[in-house]
């Protein structure tokens, strides 16, 4: 992973009020900027997919570990922006 390159964190999370606040709060407390956020409810309705666009730095691995510890986060994966170009539609 190259520092300052864009990466996408893909999350599967429980879908209920407050989940977004917990996730964004984790980034805020660590002064880690989110470049973009997309959240979509999955078909079954009780879970959502979240895509977080970040600039990679030395704290990325730590933030991934912290996300995995959140109760409502079911799955965490890191991808290059090329693998998940979802944010390109908005630029």
TrEMBL record:
The keyword Transmembrane helix is annotated on this UniProt entry:
no
Q: What Gene Ontology cellular component terms go with this record? A: cytosol
Q: A Gene Ontology MF term for this entry?
A: acetolactate synthase activity
Q: Which InterPro entries match?
A: Acetalactate_synth_ssu, ACT-like_dom_sf, ACT_dom, AHAS_ACT, AHAS_small-like_ACT
Q: Give the keywords, sorted.
A: Amino-acid biosynthesis, Branched-chain amino acid biosynthesis, Transferase
CDD domains listed in its UniProt record? ACT_AHAS (cd04878)
Coiled-coil ranges from the UniProt annotation: none
Any single biological process term in GO: isoleucine biosynthetic process
Catalysis performed (reactions):
2 pyruvate + H(+) = (2S)-2-acetolactate + CO2
Please state every residue range assigned to the domain named ACT: 8-81
Instruction: State the family named in the UniProt similarity comment for this chain.
Output: Belongs to the acetolactate synthase small subunit family.
Q: What is this protein called?
A: Acetolactate synthase small subunit
The source organism is Clostridium pasteurianum BC1
| The organism's taxonomic lineage, starting at the top | Bacteria, Bacillati, Bacillota, Clostridia, Eubacteriales
